[in-house]
Amino acid sequence: MGPTIILTGTPGVGKSSVVDELIKLAEREGIGLRVINFGTTMKRLLESAGENIHRDNIRREGLSLQRRIQLEAAREISKMRNKEVLVVDTHMFIRTPAGALPGLPESVLKELDPSLLVLVEAAPEDIATRRGGDHDRRRDKQNLDDVKSDLELGRRIAAACSVVAGVPVQIIRNEEGQQHEAAKKILDLVKEVS
């Protein structure tokens, strides 16, 4: 069975662009790689249960629903493991009305059984600009200090997840316009744990 890599980062860090580059690089090198978006999986599970909630609004639902659907998504994703490298695109935490809810609580980590955690980061100013320009998403308005807090909280949760899962965590910088370079670094890590 191939390794599971959890690829995470705060909203606006440019993770989707890095993932797109990672897929291209893996194809060029003949590395079997499958990327699964955790939030999309949660949305699909909710829809199959008759719940029509916009993906960005799941975090505004009750905590019990969020926890339940997180675990269901983790179980479904863990069934997708095969010979390929499985990359799970997710967030370290989700801002809810009650506070920051871990995106990878212990139960989810156990289901996913990762080989590596990768935290993608970028300059806070770049993240704030990207968040402000992303009109396809339903995000809360945040200032630069909020972004800095999100980055710090993401690092702390990544460290805790690394301890709980007993796997390495690596921080990869995604500088503006450098998503190809960030993806190359991640692909090198994928090769290391494969």
Which tags fit this structure?
194 residues; alpha/beta; Rossmann fold; two-stranded antiparallel sheet; 7 strands; 49% helix; globular
Written overview of the protein:
The protein has 194 residues and is α/β, with parallel strands linked by helices. It has one domain: P-loop containing nucleotide triphosphate hydrolases (Rossmann fold, 3-Layer(aba) Sandwich), CATH 3.40.50. Helices cover 49% and strands 18% of the residues. It is built from seven helices and seven strands. The protein has helices at 15-28, 38-48, 63-78, 106-112, 124-133, 144-165, 179-193; strands spanning 4-8, 33-37, 85-90, 93-96, 99-102, 116-121, 169-173. A five-stranded parallel sheet has the order 2-3-1-6-7, with helices on both faces. Strand 4 and strand 5 form a beta hairpin. Helix 2 (38-48) packs across helix 3 (63-78).
How is this fold's topology laid out?
Elements: E1 4-8, H1 15-28, E2 33-37, H2 38-48, H3 63-78, E3 85-90, E4 93-96, E5 99-102, H4 106-112, E6 116-121, H5 124-133, H6 144-165, E7 169-173, H7 179-193
Parallel strand pairs: 1-3, 1-6, 2-3, 6-7
Antiparallel strand pairs: 4-5
